[in-house]
Amino acid sequence: MDHSRGQEEYVRQVLEAYRKTPGTMGTVRHPDRVLATQLFQRGVAVTVIENAFVLAASRRLMRPADAPPLGTIRSLAYFLPVIEEVRELRVSPDYFQYLRHKLQRIAPAR
């Protein structure tokens, strides 16, 4: 696969996962596309990014009932700290599967 095709597919996958993440606006803007390209260039695996989306969305949804509501996520950049955290984590992929399963039960699908 040539580099530009690989980058295109990577960006598409990342932005699609971002768009479907609970708590986001569900839309993709130009800065999100630019950031996805930068993540590709840095060699961040798509699975790492998807796991970061799951982790952040889980944390946002699993809060105390009396906690103040959180605003809608409007930018892929919101996830950068969690992406870095996931890159450094030594966690079993099973943990992220567990979180995905929980998210599917409590968050409406997009």
What is the gist of this entry?
By secondary structure, the chain is mainly alpha-helical. It is built from 5 helices and no strands.
Please provide a written account of the structure.
The protein is mainly alpha-helical. The protein has one domain. It contains five helices and no strands. The protein is globular.
Helix-strand blueprint:
Blueprint: H1 3-20, H2 30-42, H3 46-61, H4 80-88, H5 93-106
Helix pairs in contact: 1-2, 1-3, 3-4, 3-5
Strand content: under 5%
Low-confidence stretches at least 5 residues in length (pLDDT < 50)? none
Order of helices and strands: HHHHH
> Structural class, judged by helices and strands?
mainly alpha
Q: Which short descriptors sum up this protein?
A:
mainly alpha, 110 residues
